[in-house]
Design a protein that fits this description.
The chain is of the alpha+beta class. It has 3 helices and 9 strands; from the N terminus they run ααββββββαβββ. It has helices spanning 2-30, 34-51, 136-144, and strands at residues 56-66, 72-79, 86-91, 99-104, 120-127, 131-135, 154-161, 177-178, 188-197. The strands form 2 sheets. It has a 5-stranded mixed sheet. Strands 1-9-3-6 form a 4-stranded antiparallel sheet. The longest helix has 29 residues, at 2-30. The radius of gyration is 21 Å and the shape is globular.
Length: 200
């Protein structure tokens, strides 16, 4: 009987610990109140969807982040139908401290020899509290100035999130932490990109 009781108590303790840990993880990832953050994200997504009209809505990518003790880079990949014009709208209403937005033709470089193979198609620095609209036609023109291509099949978006207001720890030795969670989050942010293609 004692062993059975110990087993039940141990199981309950483990379940409660896991539940609390999961709640902390979700809360830490998306801010203090996950429901509020999700509600805000839905609002920003709806606003950005409106801005891509009359293009036909294809999807949205929502990126949550915390401002930490070192600069971070968050990445998003978007696939496109070959040869069809796309419109992108970045909604930064949920960004309390300005971020940088960059769009590339391919993902992050793995080593120094890849440097000439990646093309910066668009860049906006110090963005917060506004919408940015751009088309794949504009991105393609930039690409064609460097490479002989007829269309874009995918783009890679990078958001550079600056250091938060309090700087309690230095950044990792000599480099940015890519997609790493901040160690001392100060504020939370949300950026939404919605995209759609031209009806033909």
């Amino acid at each position: 009987m004692k062993m059975k009781l110990k087993s039940i108590i141990l199981t309950l303790t483990l379940v409660m610990g896991l539940t609390f840990g999961f709640a902390q993880l979700i809360g830490g990832k998306k801010g203090g109140d996950p429901e509020v953050m999700v509600s805000k994200a839905a609002e920003y997504k709806a606003a950005s969807r409106e801005k891509i009209k009359p293009h036909r809505y294809d999807g949205s990518k929502i990126t949550y982040f915390n401002y930490g003790t070192y600069e971070q880079v968050k990445s998003v990949e978007i696939l496109m139908f070959n040869g069809i014009d796309y419109k992108f709208c970045f909604n930064t209403t949920g960004v309390p401290k300005a971020i940088d937005i960059k769009i590339y033709d391919r993902e992050s470089l793995k080593n120094e020899t890849d440097k000439g193979k990646r093309v910066l198609l668009y860049e906006a620095n110090g963005v917060m509290g506004k919408d940015i609209v751009i088309t794949s036609e504009e991105l393609l023109k930039t690409m064609q100035a460097t490479k002989n291509v007829t269309s874009l099949k995918k783009v890679f978006i990078e958001y550079t999130v600056p250091i938060g207001d309090k700087k309690e720890e230095p950044a990792p030795e000599g480099k940015k932490a890519k997609n790493a969670p901040p160690t001392n989050p100060q504020e939370q942010g949300i950026v939404v990109v919605s995209y759609g293609y031209k009806n033909v």
